């Protein structure tokens, strides 16, 4: 962890001073894809990520006079939040594919409206339904059946969700009455399973709908463990997007609707949930 200095001279070097002691990083490999289980593991990951950044450089006195202290602090602060892996940085995405800031702002606004509607309707339904019960889900198989029903084999590739098929699969869609039965810990578990399913089973509109619904239902304030999983969700969809974009250069073309789903997740996690280091930018 690093501390920031609010002194008037605005020295960026103060941001690199270590505050909390950690074990030597040479003691063992650091797996950024593994959720830290202790404070020490978390600090080791933060130190490793910080070590991948370029050294801070102090601006000349002339440049400092032409730059306000607030802008300088914001610039240094964002340096502390690197992307977790080089394979998922925005620079790897073709410039022509990066969506506009206006589009991203519109998606965040729509997502915020959906969340507000969800929580209002959830409270009304829970008051109206006196026999309301939480879903009883324990295993990954339980969560799979909750989402996709019994007709799709556990952790098998998910079929495309065509418009003509939606009537037949309506019972396995993330409806309001289904999502309000999940507690906040269950939503966190579901989000973790959705990351695994994305990596193991491939992406589909069906899975994208459930991931979107899960993010909608997560309440604020968000604790550190849940935010970590939300960030991992963004990284997983970024990696998926890169694979789909790469298909465009091969005989098999990537599905534009799935690529757009990836854009949505990168947008709302990066901008609505404040993980700006993961957000797309055209700068």
From TrEMBL:
GO terms for cellular component: SMN complex; spliceosomal complex. It is found in: Cytoplasm. Its main location: cytoplasm. GO terms for biological process: spliceosomal complex assembly; spliceosomal snRNP assembly. Keywords: Cytoplasm, mRNA processing, mRNA splicing. It comes from the Eukaryota. The keyword Membrane does not apply. Residues 1-13 have a biased composition (Acidic residues). It holds the Pfam family SIP1. Residues 1-36, 53-75 are annotated as: Disordered. PANTHER family: GEM-ASSOCIATED PROTEIN 2 (PTHR12794:SF0), GEMIN2 (PTHR12794). Belongs to the gemin-2 family. This is Gem-associated protein 2.
